[in-house]
Amino acid sequence: MSSLFVLPPECLLQPFPVPQRLMLGPGPSNVPTRIAAAGAQPMLGPPIMNQVKSGIQYAFQTRNRVTLAVSGPGHAAMDCAIFNSLEPGENESCQWHMWREGAKMNTVVTSAGGYFTNEGIEQINTVVFFLTHGESSTGVVHPTDGIGDLCHKYNCLFLVDSVAALGGTPICIDEQGIDIMYTGSQKVLNAPPGTAPISFSERACQKIFNRRTKPISYFLDMSWLANYWGCDDNFHHTGPVSSFYGLRESLAILAETGLENSWKWHKALAEYFHKGLEEMGLKLFVQDTNARLPTVTTIVAPPGYDWREITGYIMKTYNIEISGGIGPSAGMVLCVGLMGCNSSKANVEKVLEALADALKHCHKSRV
Ligand code: PMP
């Protein structure tokens, strides 16, 4: 008889069989066996980090010295980018609400499914301009050409979130004057969630390494992280080694495939999918064909149906995960992700069949 007050939980004394599922939501995507197996290798140390760094430099098309993977999800990289590039009290001239570390923030809004013009962007007065490249809630790929030059003209840093787009649609950070960019491991890269590639230009480093104040996070402080990834024996934190193995393997797959081939194939597959949807009578949420994100397709929620019933039916009947909208697109769309190894003709056909069947079987009210 144990004298412990909290007993071993019953649920942990049973095996936990994880069901196989085709993950066609806006992420995470399925992890192929090669990447999963890489994560099961014995623990090593720094040598893998240099390889991961070169793989990120290739995926981001950058020679930035300060290029690494944050130990955490996309949000950790987002915090890392913002905590390091902004200081309390910055953007003093603007009547904006405060970001968590005390800098002021202005949110500019466009219609869901739309995007900003460079003329509109030029009107914004800020020290860091933060743009989402692939909008996973609306399915928009935002144009990025010319924005870097605009930012630099006004001594502003250009920060890009490419969590949902990197590897599936073109972005070359050196050429486009992007100062900070990050992505996640669990989307086009098909690695498990939990590591987030990030890179900083020399301009960004100039600002970050000459701050007046320390960033509010020790864990995400770039002056420590840059040393840690410089492999100079400086201990900062225990990195998720197995996840870095997985990330290394996914970057290796991208290197073998070739970035341009990956862009081409995601675009071709997305167009094939969009054609199939339109032939079924479904409408795409993003009107401008050039602004459609190849990795995440948003479909106008079919009138008269409850989108939850459709996603639920597809999950139950086909074991395929697709999702509804979030944020600005909540209730308005169905979201289908085709990322990395999931971006295949066979998967497009499966999801088209599942959607057609759901429209036949789900309840439709008169509209
Ligand atoms: N940005 C975008 C565009 C995303 O789609 C996501 C994840 N859905 C994130 C950031 C956050 O990434 P994570 O969930 O890995 O924190």
Automatic annotation (TrEMBL):
It is an enzyme of class 2 (transferase). The modification N6-(pyridoxal phosphate)lysine is found at K187. Its EC number is 2.6.1.44, 2.6.1.51. Gene3D superfamilies: Aspartate Aminotransferase, domain 1, Type I PLP-dependent aspartate aminotransferase-like (Major domain). The keyword NADP does not apply. PROSITE patterns: AA_TRANSFER_CLASS_5 (PS00595). GO terms for molecular function: alanine-glyoxylate transaminase activity; L-serine-pyruvate transaminase activity. GO terms for biological process: glycine biosynthetic process, by transamination of glyoxylate. Keywords: Aminotransferase, Pyridoxal phosphate, Transferase. It comes from the Eukaryota. Residues 100-327 form the Aminotransferase class V domain. It catalyses: L-serine + pyruvate = 3-hydroxypyruvate + L-alanine; glyoxylate + L-alanine = glycine + pyruvate. Its cofactor is pyridoxal 5'-phosphate. One of its GO terms (cellular component) is peroxisome. Belongs to the class-V pyridoxal-phosphate-dependent aminotransferase family. Homodimer. This is Alanine--glyoxylate aminotransferase. It comes from Sinocyclocheilus rhinocerous.
